[in-house]
Amino acid sequence: MTQVTVFGGSGFIGRHLVEHLARAGASVRVATRHPSPTGEPPRLARIQQVEADILDDVAVQAAVHGADTVINLVGILSPAQRHTFTAIHEDGARRVAASAKHLGVRHLVHVSALGASRTAPALADRSKAAGEEAVRAAFPEAAIVRPSLVFGSDDHFFNGFAARARRLPALPLIGGGQTRFQPVYVEDVVAGFAAILAHPASRGKIYEFGGPQVYTFRELLEFVCAMIRARPLLVPVPFWAAELLSGLLQVFPGAPLTRDQVRLLRTHKVVSGSEPLLGDLGVEPQALETIVPEYLSAYRQVGRG
Ligand SMILES: NC(=O)c1ccc[n+]([C@@H]2O[C@H](COP(=O)([O-])OP(=O)(O)OC[C@H]3O[C@@H](n4cnc5c(N)ncnc54)[C@H](OP(=O)(O)O)[C@@H]3O)[C@@H](O)[C@H]2O)c1
């Protein structure tokens, strides 16, 4: 039976992947900083949790030991103390890849992001690009996946904006809401990972995972508001003003937005066309209109037309 270690298996995409792998018969080790009982206990017997911070050499090696497949989904949107973007996205990625190579792992899938580039405005994207290079150097046959915005019933984006749209009288449209996204369904992402693992030809490749359609940030927010029948004012805020304001706010713990998150919106998150896609793995990505309305119905405001 396949033994798979999933770093980041406790996160949004990771939970769906772990469930899929376990149902397909794999024995799955979820490497997390917060194993049960503080975290959510595994629902299937084939899922085991181990404690590992991606910054910790010994813990990473122990989590990888005995696995023939490793998937690294660890990523952050805001740094905290020693968990900087470089420490997590670059050094952590290198640590996982080097351990996997050293311990004879057959398959490594490393999850990056669309927008990853050495010249990107956001450090999150630059560190993801550095992470890809570090993984490639340590484990040349690794497959690298760059998803666009990922949606699903427990996602961050649609649930987060639905909750805010319901609560707040106004929402900012940073950069005028012109950033383009190609939202992709989490189960399609998971099916893509499974196809990568099943196809030897995927080794050493970079995949870009996007959905069937491109939307601007404004269109996505308008869609959320229409779905939940909320009418907050959508206020265009130029990038310079959003960066200034978020730069001031980010000194407070739990700030709603950091300057780097604003900078992430300065580049479009759509597939480039120069790397293979979900379709090349035999996965037909589903439209968000067929999936998102159902789970956003929980936020719907009654008494609005
Ligand atoms: N969701 C999207 O729309 C999207 C789009 C493009 C790319 N991605 C990429 O896909 C990956 C997964 O995204 P997601 O949305 O599932 O993220 P998520 O829900 O925020 O989960 C992040 C995961 O990273 C783990 N993690 C964070 N710091 C860690 C550390 N120091 N050591 C070990 N584990 C650590 C967390 O585990 P614990 O807290 O349990 O330790 C958690 O399982 C990320 O790399 C992200 O950049 C996501």
TrEMBL record:
<keyword id="KW-0614">Plasmid</keyword>
<feature type="domain" description="NAD-dependent epimerase/dehydratase">
    <location>
        <begin position="4"/>
        <end position="208"/>
    </location>
</feature>
<dbReference type="GO" id="GO:0044877">
    <property type="term" value="F:protein-containing complex binding"/>
</dbReference>
<dbReference type="InterPro" id="IPR001509">
    <property type="entry name" value="Epimerase_deHydtase"/>
</dbReference>
<protein>
    <recommendedName>
        <fullName>NAD-dependent epimerase/dehydratase domain-containing protein</fullName>
    </recommendedName>
</protein>
<dbReference type="Pfam" id="PF01370">
    <property type="entry name" value="Epimerase"/>
</dbReference>
<dbReference type="InterPro" id="IPR051207">
    <property type="entry name" value="ComplexI_NDUFA9_subunit"/>
</dbReference>
<dbReference type="InterPro" id="IPR036291">
    <property type="entry name" value="NAD(P)-bd_dom_sf"/>
</dbReference>
